[in-house]
Amino acid sequence: MPNKLRQEASLYLRQHANDPVEWHPWGAEPLALAAEQNKPLFVSIGYSSCHWCHVMAKESFANETTAALMNKLFVNIKVDREQHPEVDAFFMNSIQVMGEGGGWPLSAFCIPNGTPYYMGTYFPPTDRRGMPSFHRTLEEMARVFHEERAGVEENAAAIIIGLENLNTYFKRNEKKPLTSELVILAGKKIVEQSDKVNGGLGGAPKFPSVATLELLRRASQLEFGSDAKEAFLLAAHGMATGGIFDHLGGGFARYSVDEKWTVPHFEKLLSDNAQLLSVMAEALAMTEDNVFRVAIEKTVYWLKSEMAFEKGGFFSGIDADSEGQEGAFYLFSKSEVFDVLGKSRGLMFASAHGVSEQGNFKGNLSVITGRKKPTNVYEQKELEGMRAELLAYRNKRVKPQVDQKQLAAWNALTISGLCRAYQVCGEKEYLDLAIETAHFLKTTMISGTQVYRMSQDGTQVNKEGVLRDYACVTQAMLDLAETMESNEWFQNARALCDSMLEKFYDDEKNVFWVTSSSDELLLSRRPESNQDGSIPAGASIAVDCLVRVGDCLAIDNYLPVIEAYLGSRLPGNQGTALACSSLLSALDGYLHNKVVYVTNGEGASELRQTAWRYGGASVVGEWLESSLSVNKDDSEGKAQAYLCNRGECRLATSKPEELLKMLKE
Question: Predicted confidence band at 172 (pLDDT cuts at 50, 70, 90)?
Fold first, then answer.
């Protein structure tokens, strides 16, 4: 018998609709039922493209015996973390309070009001490597709930206290001057912790850590910048040439299971690729290395061919598994390459793309990499043709499932990534795609100054967005406004800034909340936005948007919020710097954000492109209704660029090389 998940919009929940577990979607009903029946809650959080979520589902949730035990002892809730980021944030923070590493599937045993008293991630079906079986854990967690209730309640209360302490951890005890020293020190810390050989933070597993890369990019423009630039480019190059990048079909996988970026965890998420478009564009602007241009081209190809919805916008992700096997769609044996390409051409391809007899994955299979550069133009063209042949062959395989829900924040990040790619590459296709996506968002998931978080089949799912949705959409509108030279998109962004402050900012507590003040809160504590995950914290993006809007309009309306929040929230020690990289980037924006005002006239395009390629500057002009336009004219038909900060503008120049020198000063 199907459970209560069959009619849910989320693919992940529908994937569990035929489990023998009596799953409930997140809501007031299961919490009330747990209180009525005096049962603990079991909350399982995951997402559709998560490999280990599938593993636990097959081993435990599809097992009749295990499901019967779950139904007898618990009220069971299944949560799609992408649909309910506020629920995921609450429980992910809770498991960190317990001193455990987070991840998915996230498994929480809770008292009836939804507060966890014990948590874990994946539980195996039998005792394994020091991990208790899921069956044994279920029995023990139910036993302590009924027989040791005082201790259970104490654990739950301790987690709430721990969440308060966690939020305090991300506050400074005393306000200090807002200086670039914090950005420089954090940049040095990231450089110290970076892999000096392969790039990226730490060892295996290795994640893109886009927020830290953006901080490195910003630090590269300050003192000791060469070290930060080198670390940034090494990470970008490692990803662009490693197996984490799909060299046949384009797009980046979620992360690498090894330190060399060779073997990915094969799921592909829109959010990661959207942000990595910007990373690759920044790296291309710094180096002109064609490897970054190729990564951008192929990622855009992947967006259009695999992720695009016919009515507009992009889907959220692609599964790691197909035919029940992780990575089965992407892997090749050397003999299979020879079968498709022939032996002589196959040898060339195998040598260039890391395909070996023994393989770099299980069972003599290889993840295709791209670390060996072609030696000449002939080899480059030959390899391009071979990649196309293998892609056509691969596309005949059973494809991984696509999660076709569309998320406001992730589509907004894609708009920003496409805009940055256009600014650096000049490919009009990228800008056109960004505009189409923005119009889809505006007609489907935005109503006035209200943002909804999700759409399914082009129909809005009526759930107001969280702070990250609002912040990412605002950022996308600013990026689009500057790239298109559109006052309309800019004014939309400004209106959303005001809406964010009204809905999410508490000026008395100096807090940005994850959820809107009008959102029904079923959690036992309203989560704060205070640290980065795979996407920067919504609060940090919001602050950066406030800085950009205020500087472009030469107004100080938002400065009290910006200065109060940065002054009390910036990390007071380097231990929290990595978790707050995006907030440090917002500080850098507050301190150093440059507005380049370009008048109409001959050479305007070259001046804009110079500012764009430098990166980190807002580029505006006569299209923007702003006091910055006062006393700014072209000179004898030639466009002029004025470099402004907080409304104060320097003498103009019509020469791109002089503008670049001014930007670097």
Answer: low
Q: How far apart are CA 343 and CA 48, in angstroms?
A: 39
Burial class of residue 451 in the structure, from the number of CB atoms within 10 Å of its CB (0-12 exposed, 13-18 middle, 19+ buried): buried
Q: CA 603 to CA 612: how far, in whole Å?
A: 14
Phi/psi for 371 (5° steps) reads -80, -20
Backbone angle region of 161, left / alpha / beta, with phi > 0 → left and psi within -120 to 50 → alpha: alpha
pLDDT tens-digit profile of 249-286?
999 999 999 999 999 999 999 999 999 999 999 999 99
Helix, strand, coil share (%) of the chain residues, nearest 5: 50, 15, 35
The sign one gets for the Cα dihedral 304, 309, 314, 320 is negative
Q: Which residues pair with 18 in a beta bridge?
A: none
Nearest to 646, CA basis, from 556, 569, 564: 556
- Contact between 106 and 45 under an 8 Å Cβ cutoff? The reply is yes
At residue 568, the pLDDT reads 85
Does the N-terminal peptide bond of residue 105 adopt cis geometry, omega within 30 degrees of 0? yes
Question: What does the chain come to in residues?
Answer: 665
Residue 576 clears pLDDT 70, i.e. is over it: no
R_g over Cα of the chain: 25
List the end-to-end C-alpha distance of the chain, in Å, as a whole number: 68
Nearest alpha-carbon partner for 247 in 390, 111, 53: 390
Portion of the chain with pLDDT greater than 90, in percent: 79
Contact assessment for residue 182 and residue 222, using Cβ atoms and an 8 Å cutoff: no
The whole-angstrom separation of Cα 370 and Cα 372 is 6
E strand map for 184-342? 255-256, 264-265, 268-269, 317-318, 321-322, 325-326
Identify the CA nearest to 428 among candidates 249, 605, 214, 625. Answer: 605
Which amino acid type is present at position 422? Y
Distances, alpha carbon 376 to alpha carbons 293, 297, 372, 373, in Å: 18, 21, 12, 9
Region of residue 640 (left: phi > 0; alpha: psi -120 to 50; beta: else): beta
Furthest C-alpha separation in the chain: 86
Which DSSP string do the residues of 50-107 spell out, in sequence order? -HHHHHHIIIIIT-HHHHHHHHHH-EEEEEETTT-HHHHHHHHHHHHHTT----SSEE
Q: What type of residue is 235? A: A
* C-alpha–C-alpha distance, residues 41 and 544, integer Å: 39
DSSP-derived secondary structure letter, 362: G
162-166-169-170 Cα dihedral, nearest 10 degrees: -160
pLDDT in tens, 80-100: 999 999 999 999 999 988 877
Q: Residue 650, Cα to own-chain centre: how many angstroms?
A: 37
- 75-80 vs 116-120, strand pairing mode: unpaired
The answer to whether the peptide bond before residue 400 is cis (omega within 30 degrees of 0) is: no
